[in-house]
Amino acid sequence: MANLVSSWAKNVDTLPENYVMPPDKRPSEHVSIGNNIPVIDLAKASSNTINHSGLVQEILKASQEFGLFQIINHGVSEKLMDDVMDLFKELFDMSVEEKEKLFSEDSNKSCKVYGSGGYMNHVNGEVRYWRDLIIQPVFPIQEETQHWLENPARYRELVETYSTEVRKLSTTILKLIGEGLGVEFGKEFSKRQALGANHYPPCPDPSSAMGSPPHCDPNIITFLQQQVYGLQTFKDGHWVGVHPLPYAFVVIIGYQMQIISNNKLVASEHRAVTNSETGRTTIGTFVSPAEDCIVEPAKALVNGGSTALFRAFKYQEFLDDFVTRKDSQKAMTLDAYKLQT
Question: With contact defined as beta carbons under 8 Å apart, do 211 and 230 qualify?
Answer without folding.
Answer: yes
